[in-house]
Protein 1
Amino acid sequence: MAATSNRRGSLSGRPTVVEPIKEIIRLDTFKGKFAASEFVEALSAKLVAHAQNTPRQFDPKPFIRTFEASIDELLRLKRKVHNKIDDLEDQAQASDRLRKKKLIEINDAMQDAQNAFEALESRLGDVGKTAISIGEQLETIDKQRTRAAEAKDLIQYFIEFNAGDTSRLDDVNAAGPEGEFKTAVIVRRLIALAKEVDLAGTEAAKTNIEDYSERLEKQLLERFDEAYRDGDKVVMNECAKSLVEFNGGESCIRAYVNQHEFFMNQSDVDETQPRDDEEGNEAREEPESEALAKLCHEVRRTCKKEWEVIRAVFPNAPVVMQQFIQRIFAQSIQTQLESDLRHGDDDSVLSYLRALFKAHSTILALANDLHKLDEDVVAGNAGKPVLTAIINRSFDDLFVPYVEGGKYVEAEQECLNNEFMQHLSTFQEYAAQRARTPRGKVVAKAVPAAPSSPTKTSPTSAAAMMNSLVTTMNVLSSEVAQQIGLQAAPEPMTPEEMGMPSVSLMLKLLQAHVEAMTRCRQLTQPSEMAKNGSLLFQQLIETVGVKYLEVALDMMIEDLQYHDVKQQPTFLQLPMVQVAQKILQLLQLHFQCSIVPGIASSPTAHRDMVVYKNGFMSTVEHRLNVLVQKQIDAIVKWLETCLNGQKKTDFRPKDEISSNGLTVTLPCAQCTAFLKDAYEQATYCLAGHNLESFLREIGSSFHVLLLDHLKKFVVSQGGGLILLKDIASYQHTISMFKIAFLNERFDMLREIVTLFVVKPETLKTVINEGHLSRIELPLLRPFLSQRADWSKLTHLERDLFQPGASRQQTARVGGGRDGARGGDPAF
């Protein structure tokens, strides 16, 4: 501050700030975007230009004077701004105080107005209560006065009726529609009064009132009928109002419904339709299946159109519409339904159930459309459907006689049984023929039974004996014609004709069951669905599973079990493993897609059916395992039979032969050819782990047979080459199985066979090399003893088998049919 004062003092003698500085240092300069460098440049622009134009040394004094003057001007401007801010703050505070004062005044005024309004509202409420009380009293008095006047008139009418005078009421009735309505009200009240009055001398009044009421009702109905025939809705509405007020309108509603053209047309059709003419039935068979659908379509159209008429005519339109719909279901639809079901029942149970299912679907669609009509049209602005109860009750009443008390599920079970028996008839004929055929004999193809005549005849009648004779002659002539070549041989037998299951037949059976489950889900009540679904699934398992699949597997197992070991076994049964697996897969898929949705609502039924289904599948899988094992046993038996055909001289030829002329022996050729056939059949019928286990079992069993086979023959030097050729052929065939375990076993077997070929002096070397080095020496002795020259190698025998010379090895030759089962000693 001292420096500032000194600076100002030193400049006291110079003139006032020049005008350009005042023009630059203004309040508008600092508004908006302000840059200090631009501000300084503006203050010193002229001084800089003057200094540049002056050649002498730079003089800072002009700049100092200019900046000092600028600072003084800025301070003056700052004081001016601060003063203005203070003035504005004072004005704002004064305005705020004034605003608060006004708000307090307004609040007080509003409070006074609210208090006044509440007081006025309280007074108006008191006045309103008083007015309501007065109004109620006036209304009560008016009602009492009206009732008294009406009672007086009613008593007067009663007295006049007792005297037989009805002229005054006739005049009222003749006054037009309003007079008719008033007359109906008076007569209704007179009827009620006559029932209450029990005085002597009033019998004439009662009789006259009854007669007059009948004449009035008849008069109104005649006018209603005439207007109905003329299509005059106004007159119909007038009569309907009077009749509704008179007796509820039941008579005019009946008249309207009974005379409706929809029911009249249906009655004409029913009367003209032929009943017993067989040709007529056949002619209308196709239209019959579509008649119900056409009828339902007509009902939809009629109900939508008729509601507009009923609403315009009747004051109680919903009640009339209810009776109209109830009559449609009870008369037209029920008649057509009974006709369809009667024709279906005459055909078969399946046709009956299909007709019932189709009718249920068609009528259910109609009921849903009527519900929609009720919600969108009939209910109107009320928003509450009025036809729901009558539609549901009428629909249920149609089908109750056909589904109640287990009737439906019994018919479904009968239908399924017929369907199953029809599809399984060929298989069952084979099974019955097989049961009559001695074991070991070929089962002849069952001869289909002659079609039964529709006329019942006695078994001993001439017609029955003639039919039997003709059938027998036809069969014999066919067999003779085939034998002499005059008739072509019969077509190949189907799997069912050979007693074997097939996927195609199972698909037909499941298709029938899917159709039954579809009907069951629609025709069964939700509370009974789990029970009925379980019954139908149990029938499927008991009929198709136990009586078809299990029986077929048992027959195939029996064929393999009692197969003649002297005959080469066939592989007819092996493909049935794949067929049975596919059948189980289809059954599982059917269970998930068709059965579970129907029984899922009952956890208990679902659990029981899962256990039941799994138990059946386990039984079938056990039979499949037995079947495969029997097939393996048959294969091994035949391999053993082939090996038993080996001659003693096959491995001791009299003449020495060269290695170029060696061929495998006949048993070897038979075994390898049979093994290749078994491998091809197995790869076609089995897969994955099942295929590997099957081939492993055969290979292991064959390995055991070959080990025992080598111990039965004395082998010479040349015979060893033949034996080595056989073993190489076996090894090559087994290598097709692509199982490392079997390859190792047959490698070891081949090294054992080399013991018959090597020279005596190299036996010790061979025994201590390769796989043989892991075999205990005592186990090799039975093979070495079969060398033709072994009796001459006593010194070698002593060296190899003297006490303490055996090797303790962990590996063993041979083994059971697989490594897991154990059995014979293993190498």
Note: The chain has a mean pLDDT of 79.
Protein 2
Amino acid sequence: MEKMSRVTTAHSSSAISCRTMFCHLDAPANAISVCRDATQVVVAGRNIFKIYALEEEQFVEKLNLRVGRKPSLNFSCADVMWHQMEENLLATAATNGAVVTWNLGKPSRNKQDQLFTEHKRTVNKVCFHPSEVYMLLSGSQDGFMKCFDLRKKESVSTFSGQSESVRDVQFSIKDYFTFAATFENGNVQVWDIRRPDRYERMFTAHTGPVFCCDWHPDDRGWLATGGRDKMVKVWDMTTTRAKEIYCVQTIASVARVKWRPEKKFHLATCSMMVDHNIYVWDVRRPFIPFATFEEHKDVTTGIVWRHQHDPHFLLSGSKDSTLYQHMFKDATRPVDKANPEGLCFGLFGDLAFAAKESLISSDANRKPYPGGDRRYPIFFFKKPDPTEQFAHVSSALSVFETDLDSNCMDWFVKTAQLYLLCGKPFAELCDHNAKVARELKRPQVSTTWTMLRIMFSDPANLTTPGLNHSLSKLGTLPLMNSFNMKEISSGIGTESRLERSKGESRQDNLHLEPGTLHISNNNEENEETEGSEGQAEYMFGDAELDDDDLYSMEQENQTEEQEYMLPQEAFQLRHEIMDNPSAPEHLQQDKADSPHVSGNEAEVTCLTPIESFSLISISQPLFSPHLPASFFCPIVREMLSYYAEQGDVQMAVSVLIVLGERIRKEIDDLTQEHWYMSYIDLLQRFELWNVSNEVIKLSTCSAITCLNQASTTLHINCSNCKRPMSNKGWICDRCHQCASVCAVCHHVVKGLFVWCQGCSHGGHLEHIMNWLKSSAHCPAGCGHLCEYT
């Protein structure tokens, strides 16, 4: 006792450090606590239990409490607290379920004082009473809280939360008999230590476990809680029902929360995973941290303000095996880096634009009183510290609305609902989607689907007889893959020629993508095709081309078939091309039989575009008889990128899913993931949940397929005994009753089950709907007025 007293006295007289500093620990820390006079800090973890002194330049190790040849699990600490009334008293929560107290005044090396082993599982939290020396409270994973009198060998009270594990317990600073406890199921309970049989108040604070809580040091009614839902909430406990007055949204699960001394609206938080920083929030401005400490390289496990009346120094321990003292003036201020400009498009094309506005107002030269009461002299008012003020940055928001008719997105919704992405052969999917796009007045998209069917369909599944020479109207274009030289020969060698019916539209151009088909069809390069004014139209195989399916036509002012008359003097004669290869044999024969062709000049009086095909000179076959699917992949990749850049990610993702492995390897995973996320976001904005889920299921990106796998567990309790149900059936294991029985037909509900959130009765969706059409009372007879929305 005397030895430790001398150490403490010597420390009290030494200067305390006033700068940011740190020291390396022997092992990761789980919790830290500071003594009453802020001169020493205790660090506890699974493999560390030491006391450090805060000297002027550095942390100095003063005492190692892990002594003995074989340290027991009592030294493996989940939490630690230093008594604020008795400077020699510590308490730890052991991972083996023990609650241990330590007396630093003992002369022996082993400072262990009391050992309580009443908890059956890990103790998560210990808390001393703020004014009662011998009262200690603990909360355990077994769901119980115990109050110990350190003058006795066992607990004096046991509190059962009737719930899952206790995560945190905290005595109220202002109310002597009150403490709060947080639980794994999201509830917070407030207890009176004089009544261990039942809590005074319980409310649901978070969705998911509540990891921490802290009473406000000045305002007796405020309780801050933090949970796995990434939120910090401040509750007003003075009302009959707990009222949420502030809420801060963080970026990770909240592991610790501590109110900042002397600052009513400031609190510090650290996360349980992912985020290593410590944040100080002003709860009145919850969207951006007031200050940030970024020194730790791993998860911060413990935070404590150095002194209960000093807001300028924060101590922290981390899994990176470091202990830090943070000086508040060295903290990063995120608001200084905040961008006051913003731009966002609304769902229907509205544009919102925020820009920084000048802070100079017309009465900026007026100097108002720092306080509102003029009865006191000005020198009584304390000048505010600029470092404790949020930066005043304001922006002006402008919203530009668009005409709803011009930016109607009905086509997007209908397309998403009508598109088929799987379940049918590839050709049928393309035809169906092309039809959907055509009906929605989107000809380019319809053409794209048709071309995809042409490029990627399997030619083995299609029959290709000779040309049908009795066509009066072109049908669908045959498959490019089925185009070969033999079929050209058989089609050209026939005596009959395809004729167009009068009044039909003319195809002006046939656009062949580079690298796909090489046929000499330019009138300037081949004299034998000079029988038409424009480029010739070509038919490959036997399938028919519907003009509306593939190309947009010019049908105005064409009531009559245009005759293609070419006077002899229309073109200047050119020199003879000596090295021109001879045409195929059947072309030569056809040429010999024709009285209209003589030498290098074309004396044909009238040739239809289809007839001119017979006069094509093919220099050599530049492609294989059957084009592989990979032949078209580069142009399809460019097409998908084009649609994505134009903002039509719906088309890009739909084609990506329908083509599947044919194109997926051509596009990198990050690009695919970006397209998927953009399309899914749009679908969810329009509340197209079923389509969104189908897209997620059909995707092959691992980052996308996991989207509908998170938070999909539904925990069911028996409606009779209120106990959790197993996953084996509809019969409760405890009471052996059917849990989901329809209140109307009294049969087990094995499909969609709808229930009233007021009385918890329900049944088959259709039965409940029909019942509530004629009656507002619950069909179970409980008397509750149910409402179906």
Note: The chain is about 15% helix and 25% strand.
Protein 3
Amino acid sequence: MAPYVLNINENVVYIIYFLLTLITLFSASWSTNEVYDYDTGVANQTTGVLGDIAYLPCNTRPLNNNNSTIDAIVWFHSVRKSSKPICSYDNRNRTGEGRYWCDKEFSFRFNENEVFSVLTLKPVKLSHQGSYRCRVDFRSSPTRNYIVNLTVITPPRKLSIIDEKGIEIPNTLNNVIGPYNEGSTALISCVASEGSPPPKVTWWKENALLDDSSELLQNGMVKNVLKLEKLTRAHLNAVYTCQANNNNVSVPLSTTVTISMSLSPLWIKLQGTNKPMSAGRIYEISCQVYGANPSPVITWWKGNTKLKNYEKSDSNDGNSTISRLNFIPEYEDDGKLLICRADGPSPSSTLFQDWWKLNITYKPIATLELGKNLNASAIVEGIDVYFECKIKSNLPVHKITWKQDGRLLRSNQSLGLLITNQELVLQKVSRSQSGLYSCMASNLEGDGESNSTYLNIKFAPTCYHSAVEEYGVGRGENIRITCEMEANPAEDVKFVWRFGNMSENTDLFLKQVSNGTRSFAEFQPKSEYDYGILSCWARNSLGETKQPCSYKIFSAGKPDAVTNCVVTNKTFDSLRIKCDSGFDGGSRQRFTLEIRESETDILFKNVSQDIPEFYVTGLHAGLSYDIVLYSANSKGKSRTVEFSETLNELQNEIAQSYFTLDLPPLFILMMILVGVLILLACCLIVTFKSYSGKHSKKQVSYKSKESLEKNPDIIPNKDDVSCTLEVVNINDEKKPNLTKETDISLILQNSYGTDLNSDYTLHHEDCKKMYRKKTASLKRLNEIEITYAACDQPCPPFINQETPLLSNNFIPLMNEGQHSVQCCIHGLSRSTSISRF
């Protein structure tokens, strides 16, 4: 049984050995698409990819399957015996470790425990293709030769995407092809080149195979055409992959293509609601376009006018585009269409647009026109003129106003100025009504002013100065007289000068010059008969002067003396002198004042001026002065007016003399500081007392005339002599006279009709008596205020404790402002403050 068992074990070993050989063969040739086929004397086929790694197997087992030791292994790149080895293993020294040698393009390793040894080629080159022979020398077994044929595979190196027009798509990141319209068909060709053997070209979408029907072209290239029919929005940005491969080792060559679609917008919409807009204001209006590809061209239109000043932005997903317009409406835009328009992907595409009908509110547009039957260049004094204000407004007009030279006009029938709804009528116009006229209409948006129209009223010449002017001139003297006219038109004014009843060609006129509306005449009287009235006449296209300009020529002489000289406001050091001027002798005169001290006859002052009123200061109290007054013109001096005046003595007989204090500067400075401190202390005390006295401030009630008539007489208390302060408040601007016996304790009397320097007089009488009848012209009283303050001076006995008034004392109020009368009762100040308006 032992031999049988042994035979069985040998068969098992051979089977196992064969299986291990196959496994080793597969393991050693993982880079090929072929399985090594071992057959003695038969060449084995294997492949290698260009640029990759190739493994060539060699069976190192003896043919008789004994355990003979290997002495040498030699690789040749040819089956010929004369070929040079490319790799070798030498174990002939029997040391147990053989020596390896290989050319630089090859590597080789041998393992005694494996059936096959492997020759490695890295990287595989085209020159490596061919037959390889592996010779194995055994120590106790015949040499064995193993032949391997290596085929080098060249992968495809280029893939080209070509559209249906034969245009190659540039090789970019996305390789976008298109754009295609909806419903169209796309034919996309993928062409592989430089592959050996020819590769297989396939189309994929993600992991799904779409088309593997490649076609070998005559030039050795391989093409596969992907056909996409009835393209829709779903194909937008769809990515398709083309692969080419001719082996199972290298990664397939691939490229992608992205489909671009031309898509019309799904909808277009103006954002917000269509509301009324105010002309001149800025509005931002947005328009959204959805579903268009590529991003649409959005334009804005106002009617048929293309607008500018807008910007566009796209959403992140590219599905929406928004255009924003900065719109400033004008009043002419009312009723027009504001259109947002998105152009389709092709000229034949449907036009997408959305629009608003504009409702523009604006301030009125006013236009002023002269009456239709009037000729603006032929308007003369005395005719009726009317203007028409034409108004354009889409809001109700609530007011129309008229202006002349910027001044507001109001209807005045007595002046012939009539204003109707939209017309201005000027009856019997005069030259004063010439000027720029305009109208202004108002609505809720504001005021709209019209154009200005000049009303040019023409008239015949009239004298600019209607009064007779007087000129004094001596015999044989020349005088230049100016005649000035008002005339319209003024360009064609002609002047005529006449003396008395003479014609204009008298030899008394030395020279006559006219310039526009002025004429200058030089006149020379030669005898006493050459004095009289000189007349100036003028004429233009509308007629002649109705009344000439008259100039009285008289013989000039010295002026007359001043008269009615009065000295007023005389004090201890000043006085005021006022005189009436006499006849000036026919020429300009000046008035002179001379003051001399009576005792010394020394000239103190000499003053000349144009009016006979002099105010002299710096005089010495108690001295007597001689005063001389006269006037003078170009012909000489008038007679003098002389008188003397003695100034008042100083009150309290205080002697004055000029003296000098010789004090140290430090002492003077300390005295000034002490004075300032005392003044500050007094101010603080007065302020404190004034503040504490505010609680007892009296308010004066204003009573009308009617209320005074109804009130009974007020009888004051006999013990404290108290009165009630009542003020008559007259609001009537006509200033009527009051004649009423009433208990009026305060009357402000104004001499109505006099100049601004009229005086107010404050009266107070015994409160126990009935006040006598008063008649006064009163103005409105603006303010009477009673204040209290601490004081030291007692009041006179006629000051009432409740109503601080001065009795029959005169208070001049010469200018605007507040004036007060103040005194003390029981340590409290009574102050009446009167404001003049």
Note: Helices lie at 2-28, 665-692, 705-710.
Protein 4
Amino acid sequence: MAELESIETAAEHERILREIESTDTACIGPTLRSVYDGEEHGRFMEKLEARIRNHDREIEKMCNFHYQGFVDSITELLKVRGEAQKLKNQVTDTNRKLQSEGKELIIAMEELKQCRLQQRNISATVDKLTLCLPVLEMYSKLREQMKSKRHYPALKTLEHLEHTYLPQVSHYRFCKVMVDNIPKLREEIKEVSMSDLKDFLESIRKHSDKIGEMAMKQAQQQRNLDNIVSQHPRISGGKKSKKEACAGSDLEVKNTSPMSEQDSGILDVEDEEEDEEVPGAQELVDFSPVYRCLHIYTVLGARETFENYYRKQRRKQARLVLQPPSNMHETLDGYRKYFNQIVGFFVVEDHILHTTQGLVNRAYIDELWEMALSKTIAALRTHSSYCSDPSLVLDLKNLIVLFADTLQGYGFPVNQLFDMLLEIQDQYSETLLKKWSGVFRNILDSDNYSPIPVTNEEIYKKIVGQFPFQDAELEKQPFPKKFPFSEFVPKVYNQIKEFIYACLKFSEDLHLSSTEVDDMIRKSTNLLLTRTLSNCLQNVIKRKNVGLTELVQIIINTTHLEKSCKFLEEFITNITNVLPETVHTTKLYGTTTFKDARHAAEEEIYTNLNQKIDQFLQLADYDWMALEPGSRASDYLVDLIGFLRSTFAVFTHLPGDVDAHSTMSGKVAQTACMSACKHLSTSLMQLLLEAEVRQLTLGALQQFNLDVEECEQFARSGPVPGFQGDTLQLAFIDLRQLLDLFIQWDWSTYLADYGQPTCKYLRVNPTTALVLLEKMRDTSRKNNVFAQFRKNERDKQKLIDTVAKQLRGLINSHHS
């Protein structure tokens, strides 16, 4: 082990020696430090000494080898030293001679320098005097111009004096008075021009509303002219055409078409006004003060200060203009005044932009417009959200469109305004939905839910014109006759069309494609069908006082409305010119809405019937301890069967002129009848097995059997046509087999055939049979305490115990 360590130490010392030989002297410290950090520095010193001795021997060998050459070089150097000393002496003598001969030349040069300096000073003095005389003349001229209040010439003179002359002579004392007076004169001119600018700013603040009104009126006139040109290529008679169009619109209003409803008139321009020249911003406001002030500040070198002041003041005015009044949402005039002020502000800025060079630039205008756009959109979102009147929202939309078109005509981007109009469109749809919710409620509440009687051809054609209904057999019938649906069907159908017209009205002038308009109308109409109309129908169906006849009529009505959905699809296609086969076209969900309403009405019929059955069953008063049955079925059950017969008779009177009607009414009647019978059977079974009935006799069971037979007789009588064979009787099969088993006491057959498909008592559950048997066994025990000593009673009790035991075995085996 020691030998291994010595080998490693020797290798390490060898590495350090190589590093010392190859490393710069300044970096040798860390290497030596590593030697003294170890414990073998003595041995290292020995190795170092040995290495030094080796290098000394090599140096000695090298010197011996080159010694003769070294001696020759020393000899040559000694010869050169002598020659160099001779050369140095010669150079020193030459320099001394040159210095003594150059003294006279230096003196002459100094005299020449002084002469040149005097000549330059004289020339500079003449130049300065030449500059001073024009300065004095210009200053004298400036004072005269200021006295005569000629500020523009004085300003030019001041500029020449300050920038051309005074900088050349400003170091003279006589110029101090001039320099002190020039700033005072400049400030005086600034104050006069700034006063004019303030008057200008106040003027445009007052006139912004009027300027905006005129600009929007010009935009409206241009739009009306474009519409007239597009509708009537021949411009002659344009005014007449417009009046005729208004007359046609009035006629359409009388026809109750919302598509033809006029705008509130807030944006219409009178015919007389169309012929008048609408004044522009330059006619309403004198812009000369701002031009003069700009020129003066430019000349004074304070243009940037003037621009900053102007922009700062206009920004303040912009913030005031963009601050809407708190009651703006109450009337359209509030919105109009708000828009007029904004338009007026930017019309002025646009005029300043194009008539001045740099007072405002496009970046500044864009910045102001971005701020105005964001604040305007935020204000419109806030205030429009308070509006619940669809007509006011529609008028607001028209005003926003005119506002956007006006500013777009001045080059301002207005895409965000149209995007916001799409948001307002959602709000408009919500207000329409609320309005139509009330309309639908009124229609449904005022309906008599009876088929519409028709006494003559005129009334028949009127209803057929309001609702797409065709029935060849009904047309052949003589008057008077009845439509299968009630009055709310054509009314609801027409109101859906009115809603579509109202939606279409909002999409005008929004620069939307036909596909986008079609999609917007379909989505809004879907909301109307699936939310508004659906909720109204559901509320009518769920009302407490709704009768069976009303529910049946609702089923018929929703069936016809469901069929009319394809006509609504065609109607939307006709007004938007977008074919339903187009990709991404939204489909109407009316079919689903009316199906859901019809299903809800059917479920309500079934629920009402079951609730009525439960009310009758609450009158049941069985004597479960009776020894003998009665002679006929219970009174409550007889009344219940009578109610069911009269109820299902209503379905037989449903209009069956059309196969669809009869098929529909038949299916509803069959389902209702089957549901009622099943519910009655289940309720009777629960009545027999309920925990409160602890004991019952065979006589009570026989009386219960009479009631079940009455139910079976009702099922066999065919209260509703369409059931095949004994289908309706199967609703009572569980009760029938259970009662037969106990009345006939046919336990041997039941126990022997249990589990087989052909079992006579296949529908009897062992658990149910055991519960009923326990009730009868308890009765036997209680009533025959002393009779148990008789052999027959003891045998019967044993038989019950045996059957109960076997039933428990069947139940346990079934669970296992």
Note: The two ends are 82 Å apart (CA to CA).
